[in-house]
Amino acid sequence: MINSNAFDYINVLDKAADASALRNQLIANNIANQDTPGYKRQDVNFEDQLKTALRSSKYTSIDDKVANVRMSALNARQFTDYGDYSYRLDENNVDPEQEQVALAANQLKYQGLMSSLNAEFSNLKTVMK
Question: Of the candidates 52, 113, 114, 116, which lies 20 to 30 Å from 122 by C-alpha distance?
Answer without folding.
Answer: 52
